[in-house]
Amino acid sequence: MDRKVSWRILLGLAAQRVICDTCQAELVPITGELCLTCGRPLSKLKPEYIYDHDCSDCMKWRTSEFGDVLKFNRSFYEYNDFMKDILALYKFRGDVEAGRVFSAIFQDEIKKSYAYVDYVIPIPSSLERLYERGFNQCEVWIEGTEFHEKPILCRVNHEEKQSKKSRAKRMNRKEDMFQLLPNVTMTGKACLLIDDLYTTGTTLHYAAKTLKHAGASHVCSLTLCRG
User: CATH number for the 3-226 domain, one of 2.30.30, 2.60.40, 3.40.50, 3.30.70?
Assistant: First the structure.
């Protein structure tokens, strides 16, 4: 594939929020039998890492202090090299239009499968990342819609990027990552978290834990891709 041509096509169509056929062919939708909790394709795992339709990572979360704070996650695409390029352009080079082409699939899926939730909550960026990038990459996908509520969560403090940490360090961090903003009532509310990438699930589990401790009745998540 001619990468320059495909990026020109992708960005040229971004204003209409359409993905061209060339780029669409590079995106790999997640299909087949999935881990019932995190949405990971079980075909990618060896049998010894599968426990009755759940993966080993989810079993670790369930038997930890987190329990089942995050009911389930579902993702649209596999985190392949092409998706890595898109997210690099979107998140780290600040090209908002490269990510906005995915707004329609998020909004359509929320309307179709998550009409029951009370809050759709984009995972918040740190103040440093927000300043560098100029936007929250998750909030872009629901901006201008009825799902776009007032902010509910914020980052507790500056932290090293999750992508810089080892798998073990991600899953075994001790400090809280998020806090509820003032004057937010969460008791009995069903919440949908949205994020760009699910790898170990650390970010989403910490966000779900904060919401559950504030009284949320149900927390699930929807992510662009699954690593």
Answer: 3.40.50
